[in-house]
Design brief:
alpha+beta, single chain, four-stranded mixed beta sheet, elongated, 291 residues
Length: 291
């Protein structure tokens, strides 16, 4: 049996029991979710080039929040061809449950185990393009997104607070000048949808010349990872940890409800970093001389 299909089936089997539990045990009056706008194909191209300027967040409370969380648990497909498959939907929020950890944990673990197993099978495919194709041909319902990988976070007991916020961390890659030239030239084979082959190759030619003229032996690229909602939680002993808030957080076994800070609208601010002090060699890659 194709293990991709098997574990995808396991994900589907685990979704409904968890949804039913949330529907039955959610503390509706204290449920909160944050709705983010969906990204279409046209917006996707602009975001790849320019990034977000702003994101407007709509809070949901009560029964609306619970229903939205239930829908979020099963979201792992893009059925509309106009919607971005790269910028998948995020579902930050917190749903308290009036049940014990013994009731909810087996259902969360079943779903998370199936998700992890499915991801592991896909990650065994070495080539990134082939990995993408395999992921999307595994099922005939629609295009599967990385939501199929996302785990559900379950918390038990009393917490002081859940602080929802926006996060962006830089991604750094350092390698030799020749390795960068190889990478840049390899990009000729993948022409972005926002341009044509001639214009793209002209850009690549200019980037190659810029790197060749650089006297440094090594160059570094510092690029931000995709913006995402996160949540920093604080326990009663003041221990803190930050987790990705791609799916609703579930909280059970509480004797008091924590403070929850709202996820606010995002507005882009100028990035201040050391890389800005260095000469940009290739703007597209934010490629600078290694210091």
């Amino acid at each position: 049996m194709n293990l991709h299909r098997y574990y995808l089936g396991e994900i589907k089997k685990a979704i409904a029991p968890l949804q039913a539990l949330i529907r039955e045990h959610a503390v509706t009056e204290h449920a909160i979710m944050f709705v983010l706008p969906r990204i279409d194909k046209k917006q996707e191209e602009a975001l790849i080039q320019e990034d977000y300027d702003e994101i407007l967040v709509t809070p949901l409370y009560g029964a609306e929040a619970v229903q939205y969380a239930i829908q979020a648990i099963e979201d792992m497909y893009v059925l509309d061809n106009n919607i971005s498959r790269r910028f998948v939907q995020k579902y930050p929020g917190l749903i308290p449950l009036k049940c014990s950890i013994d009731t909810v944990l087996p259902k969360v673990e079943a779903l998370n185990h199936a998700k992890a197993a499915f991801k592991a099978e896909v990650q065994k495919i070495g080539d990134e393009e082939e990995k993408f194709r395999e992921l999307h041909r595994t099922d005939n319902v629609g295009f599967i997104t990385s939501m199929a990988y996302r785990k559900v976070y379950l918390f038990e007991g009393d917490y002081k607070a859940f602080y929802f916020n926006w996060s962006r961390r830089s991604r750094t890659k350092t390698q030799s000048k020749q390795d960068w030239l190889n990478d840049i030239n390899a990009a000729r084979n993948t022409v972005p949808s926002f341009t044509d082959k001639h214009t793209w190759n002209d850009l690549i030619d200019k980037e190659v010349i810029s790197v060749q003229r650089c006297s440094a032996e090594k160059l570094v690229s510092r690029r931000p990872i995709k913006l995402r909602p996160e949540c920093t939680w604080r326990r009663m002993d003041d221990k803190m940890q930050t987790d990705s808030a791609g799916l609703p957080f579930l909280l059970c076994g509480t004797t008091l409800l924590p403070k929850v800070t709202l996820l606010g609208n995002y507005t882009r601010k100028p990035v201040a970093s050391k890389s800005k002090l260095n000469e940009i060699v290739v703007a597209r890659l934010n490629l600078t001389v290694k210091t």
